[in-house]
Fold this sequence. Notes:
The chain has 172 residues and is α/β, with parallel strands linked by helices. The chain has 6 helices and 8 strands. The protein has helices at residues 3-25, 70-73, 76-85, 102-112, 125-129, 160-171; strands spanning 31-36, 41-43, 49-51, 59-65, 90-96, 117-120, 137-141, 146-152. It is globular, with a radius of gyration of 15 Å. The termini are far apart.
Amino acid sequence: MRRQPLRTALVLVVGALAGGAVAQDSDVFILREKTPAPAFSLPDLSGQMVDSKRLAGKIAVLSFGATWCSSCTSELKSLENLQAKFPKDLVVYFVALDGRGEKDVKPYLEKHGHKIRTLFDPRMVVAREHGVRWLPVTLVLDRNGAIVGRAIGPREWDGKEALEFIQPLVDR
């Protein structure tokens, strides 16, 4: 039983390395899809539970990653900038998969000055339900809660490609 988390962590590390290299070489910024997103409930930095129902009516960006993953943390500032660009219509969350949860994540965010909304999924239950198999993976959900885009590997979320993807969702 104790080997499963280690095996899962190794798969994520290997996947993060492979996925990051492939995604960075890809011309496709985000893979479009139309998939119902599974419901979830996760704790945030303050210990409050955030339910996916709270996202209804907003565009949601869920960035699954970990503080030990440099590809994941390289996106945090651009995700914060994306949130600032659309403060009323968009909610951006860093979904931290760090095994020790808040004990690892909160000091990292404070040290680097990140103010991004953060949820904790240390057992990767929600990540698995959303098809996350490597890191980072970022999902974009429309106002109805459907996954409309999936980015595998790091992206510049405040760049031209992201804005061209998000703006039409906001305008609907």
